Amino acid sequence: MKTISELTARVAAGQITSEKLTEECLLKIGEYDEKLNAFITVTMDEALAQARAADKEIAAGRRIGPLHGIPISLKDLIDQKGVRTSAGSLVRKTHVATADAVVTRRLREAGAVFVGKTNLHEFAFGTTNEDSGFGPARNPHNLDRSPGGSSGGSAAAVASGMCLGTVGTDTGGSIRIPAACCGIVGLKPEWGHISASGVVPLSRQLDHVGPLAASVADAWLLYNAMQPPSDQIGDALEPAPLKGLRLGVLSGYFFDRLDADVERGVIEALGRLLQGGAVATEVTVPHANDMAAIYLHLVFGDAAEYHARTLATRPQDYTKPVRLRLEMARYVLAEDYIRALRGKALIAREIDRALDGVDALILPSLAIPAPPIGAVTMPVKGGPDQVRTLMLRCSQPFNLSGHPAISIPCGRTKDGLPIGLQLVGHKGRTPALVQAALAAEAAIAS
Amino acid sequence: MTIAEWLAAAKADAEKRGLPELIPMLDGLAQATERLRAADWNDNPDKDTPVDEDHQ
Q1: Shortest CA distance to A190 belongs to which of A17, A355, A2, A391?
Q2: Which of A306, A312, A326, A416 ranks highest by number of CB atoms within 10 Å?
Q3: Active-site residues of A: which are they?
Q4: Would an 8 Å CB–CB cutoff place A388 in contact with chain B?
């Protein structure tokens, strides 16, 4: 995969134009997207106009920064002025955004070129991108497999070179799950740090907005540009020294129900880090077994409130599976929602404690490889389990807690499907997490 | 409301609204709610009020 880091240097040096890069992405969309269905809307004319404008500015010595002229996409949950925001649903098939979301505006100000809006699991309410009003997206590594979700189209678009980076959202894992499924990097920032204003919500207390990209360095460039301007720092981060990097290996629940190849791949990757001088300690989250129930009651309560009106007035415009789950969500009682809120606060404290004395937590991003489209269960250690449960298992804890978390590729299964390794950092220290991820990425690749 | 009472009411409501596919799904939600209610952090008015160790 080509990276932003490599291509931006060539754009700055005048070796390649933004127009050329954008045309290449648009050609790949034309070539691959009929099979991958990664895009809901392609904004070809706007992208080429932006690219030509970028080339003029750069040639005149007014290059803004590393994203100037770089073609990226936006998950179709994120508003882009003048372009439809469908949320992957026929409920919004004609809805055109009247203003940019805050992240869109920041990326536009950084000079990025927007090639289109990517497919997703309808209203972000799922982990496979199978249920979309615009048809399922598919995994570039195997067309019979899910690209993960809900930001499945985003991940498929980056993995196949149809764009150089993308912005997704993550409520239970929807950046990290598709990143792991498609063999790319996905960064879920700390909750609340990247604005979700102008982004269709699923559960505002659990929603996060963040980048997916071909490398950790690229994810950082996108994340940095999306930050509030007062928080933006130098474009390149140095990797943390691997020697002495303190890793907390989340044991028990997080390794209990894994696909055999995923477990092997994650343990091998951890072994590489230890060979490079990292130090590992086993840590636990005492109430880990309660996390799925906590998450379910919160996301259901929040989604039920948001969708109440349209479920009543136009239920037929939802995909059947998403409609049924939203209808089920309406039965959550207030007293159970309150119980779940208390559980959320407890999990956040336990993850803070797990991070005491370590630089980052380490665990699989996803318990299974990308599942076949339509699969209901998958085989894992201890017996088969529901796909939805397995997809969320390793990622949803950090939506509950709000800690920053990143998925990086760490090898393939016997069938050639990507495996993801997840690092989780301290609140307030996302740059340190990214530096640890840079070190891990280099060690795994070596 | 006990979970059994809630489940019976929810299933009856789903049936009444013409959503029979919801009925087996509600069993899954009931299991998750049982888990949530059984958790040891829940309030218990006839037991000690736990001290939050993060508070001084």
Answers
A1: A355
A2: A326
A3: 75, 150, 174
A4: no
Contacts of B25 in chain A (CB under 8 A): 324-325, 328
CA dihedral of residues A208, A213, A217, A223 (deg, nearest 10): -30
Q: Tell me the pLDDT tens digit for each residue of B4-53.
A: 999 999 999 999 999 999 999 999 999 999 999 999 988 878 877 776 66
For residue A77, give the nearest of A66, A69, A67, A88 by alpha carbon: A88
Alpha-helical (H) ranges within A356-429 are 387-392, 397-401
Residue B56: burial class (beta carbons within 10 Å; 0-12, 13-18, 19+):
exposed
* Backbone φ and ψ of A418, nearest 5°: -65, 150
Is the ipTM above a cut-off of 0.85? yes
Q: What percent of chain A is helix, strand and coil (3-state, nearest 5)?
A: 45, 15, 40
pLDDT at B43: 80
Residues of chain B contacting A325 with CB distance shorter than 8 Å: 25
Which residues lie closer than 8 Å to A184 by C-beta, 6 or more apart?
A1, A155, A158, A159, A212, A213, A214, A409
Are B32 and A340 a contacting pair, CB within 8 Å?
Answer: no
- What sign has the CA pseudo-torsion A391, A395, A399, A405? negative
Confirm or reject contact between A293 and chain B (CB < 8 A): yes
User: For residues A398 and A351, is the Cβ–Cβ distance under 8 A?
Assistant: yes
Which of B13, B21, B36 has its CB closest to that of A340? B36
Whether the CB of B23 is below 8 Å from some CB of chain A: the reply is no
Ordered strands of the A185-188 beta sheet: A39-42, A113-118, A71-75, A165-170, A208-213, A185-188, A405-412, A418-424, A360-364, A246-250, A279-283
What's the CA gap between A101 and A200, in Å, rounded?
Answer: 10
Between the alpha carbon of residue A302 and those of residues A46, A175, A306, A340, A407, the distances in Å are 35, 20, 6, 12, 26
A349-387 pLDDT, tens digit per residue, is 999 999 999 999 999 999 999 999 999 999 999 999 999
- Asked whether the predicted pLDDT for residue B56 surpasses 60, the reply is no
* Residue of A28, A368, A10, A32 whose CA lies nearest to A173: A368
H or E segment to which residue A54 belongs: helix A44-59
Q: Does A93 touch chain B (CB under 8 A)?
A: no
Contacts with B11 from chain A: Cβ below 8 Å: none
Query: Using CA atoms, how far apart are residues A401 and A383, in angstroms rounded to an integer?
Result: 28
Q: What pLDDT, on the 0 to 100 scale, is given for residue A1? A: 85
Best to test chain A binding among B16, B31, B41, B42 (most A CBs inside 10 Å)? B41
